[in-house]
Amino acid sequence: MLRDHSGWVALVAVAVVVVLALGIAGWAGMRVKAGRGTHRPRRWGRRPHRNEFRPEGSVSDSPTRRAAIIINPTKFDDLDAVRRRITEQSVSHGWSEPLYILTTEKDPGTGQARDAVAQGVDLVCALGGDGTVRAVAAALVGTETPMGLLPGGTGNLLARNLDLPYDDLGDALRVALTGQNTRVDVGRLTLDTSGEDHRPEQHIFLVMAGLGFDAAIMADAPEKLKAKVGPAAYVVSGARNLRGPQFKIRVTVDDHEEFTRRARTVVVGNCGKLLGGLVLMPEAELDDGQLDMVILSPKGVVGWAAIAARLASKRRKGHQRVDHYTSTTIKVRADRPQEVQIDGDTLGKARAITAEVVPSALVVRVGSPR
Questions:
Q1: Which of 50, 181, 280, 370 has the smallest C-beta neighbourhood within 10 Å, fewest atoms?
Q2: How many CB atoms lie under 10 A from the CB of residue 26?
Q3: Are strands 329-342 and 247-253 parallel, antiparallel or unpaired?
Q4: Residue 217 and residue 230: Cα distance in Å, rounded?
Q5: What is the band of 206 on the pLDDT scale with cuts at 50, 70, 90?
């Protein structure tokens, strides 16, 4: 059985009021059964992919194909059962027994995926939450090796945005083994922790990056409470942070003139769908060569309620507390350090972030071409 408490993506906490008002509770109890159904510098440019949109079931010209399964072991109570099930299904689809590599606290998947590629596997599957998926993708960006998405967390947001199975391991593995390849964009976030534009950190994100309220929720959620109540811990943290102050930001979108806003949170997305059917960025697409940004500027609980109604309507424009922008490069500088998160993982505080899209940088296995 998967453990949900460490895999939930708290991006939905951007709209905690939406969760409370609409009663979205399905995410809290979602559990996937194993037997159910079946920083080193790197180049970011796109390389041609010889397998793109090959016929179903085709990943390699070799008659014996092999997948690597990068597993976050903290997600499973019975890891052996999971491995047996994956091996059986792989063999039944004409693949060799997979190469299994476990993530560690020091390396959540990037080094393991890089090792798998070096061993010549045909497919690398991430079996874990959104953090594991991001770590594995970091090693595959700019390569020709496709990534399969196996559900091992509560959010599984990249899978949701690609319309892939996200609550059944067997179905997800079938798509990974027999589906087709498609290319998706990747976001690249440069983090300035000093505010002086030196020693920047660089990370990739697949779903969303946030500055402000949503990241603060994740940073403030007590570990003991998460262990006891799971995702509900983020709701508690979100409620505690609702009355926090706004901060001033200066924003540059592409090469346009800089503008200022007061905000509680800024979210930059490669895609827009969250849990419970909530769509934070209605026009965001994984393969459009663009990033979307939403700036939320509520004042108090009443302001959050207005934003909740706005987000629930899925409308893009026309609200003074919700601003949407679309571009290839977004720069945001705050008047004081703010918490930052990428795909649900907190990075600490920063004064400035720069988000850039890397078009078609990652190959993902899907059921049919997008």
A1: 50
A2: 11
A3: antiparallel
A4: 14
A5: very high
Specify the length of the chain in residues: 370
Tell the residue number behind the tokens 């390389």, with chain if given. Answer: 47
Q: Which of 227, 204, 232 is nearest to 217 (CA)?
A: 232
Q: What is the DSSP string of 129-175?
A: SHHHHHHHHHHHTTSS--EEEEE-SS--HHHHHTT---S-HHHHHHH
Q: For residue range 211-234, what is the model confidence (pLDDT) as tens digits?
A: 999 888 888 776 666 667 666 666
Tell me what the mean pLDDT of segment 116-143 comes to: 96
Distance CA 279, CA 324 (A): 13
- Residues 160-184 have pLDDT tens digits of 999 999 999 999 999 999 999 999 9
Alpha carbon dihedral 230, 305, 282, 163, in 10-degree steps, equals 30
pTM above 0.85, yes or no: no
Task: Determine the longest span between alpha carbons in the chain, in angstroms.
Answer: 61
CB of 342 closer than 8 Å to CB of 205:
yes
Phi, psi of 314 (to 5 degrees): 60, 20
Mean pLDDT along residues 7-32: 36
Element (H, E) at 307: helix 300-313
Backbone angles phi, psi at 268, to 5 degrees: -110, 125
